[in-house]
Design goal:
By secondary structure, the protein is an alpha/beta fold. It contains 11 helices and 12 strands.
Amino acid sequence: MISKERALEIVEYSLRNGEEPTLTAYNIPLETLNRYRREYKKHYGDTAELLMKLKQRFTEEELNAIAKGSLVIPDSKDKQHITFDGDVITFGIMSDNHCGSIFSKDEYVLMAINEMKKENCSFMVHAGDCVEGMMNRPGAVYELSRIGYKSQRDGAVEIFKEWDKPLYMVGGNHNGSFDTKFGIGMDITEDICSRLPSAIYLGSLEGNFNINGADVKVFHGNDGSSYALSYREQKILEMMSPSELPAMLITGHTHKSMYFKYRGTHIICGGTLQSQTPFMRGKKLPAHVGWWIVSMCVQDGKIVWVQPRWYDLER
């Protein structure tokens, strides 16, 4: 018989240190560890399994941020660093192309990639929802040109393989729908990035990287839009302490395009490469269709100037 105290000891050790170190430290097989997990869950409630998953995925610092109600998780220790010679760098930004939707325009993505190549962009940032996912709304399946995980994954890989420079990508709520709504246990964005030689996966809904010392946060999120275009981005930054504020914030999700500065942070909303959908029209939400090419000067880890160019496909 497994005691409550023993289950607590071993399972919490596994949450802190991981599965393999636990099996080694206690000299037990995986089957025995799973018995301890079941006993732990029996004594500590139905939330134990969720707690296990959270502790496996997030650090203590990140869990504290979530507990305080923050949508913005502290910077990852694995932040990507981009270095370049000189002071000026040019890069592309796109978001929300929703591959697999009948409203998605693959030709727009290819058009953006070709323009970024022509402008000699050093890298591209994708702010989420590179696939449509399976949103499980009434009638949503009839708006799909690609049905299922593999079809959408392969479609996205086929498009983005045309970009052969670094591609920094976060997932989005549509990408995550395969897991959140159907529980397949896989992250399609991470899977897509693993199949593209130049792609770098930043995170499921947000991520961070650094350009010559200037911190950049890419945020997709799973929250709603608002009546004022800038309100959402302002609230994202207001959740951060002054020491956490990035030099630049790039956002996706709302299908809006905008550049402004707030709390010392340069903010670019990525827009969309999906045409207006009945869902957004029903919510009275416009779609700003296009992409960005951004040149900026970075000196001593600070952004000196930014020159964002919006390529408008609604004209």
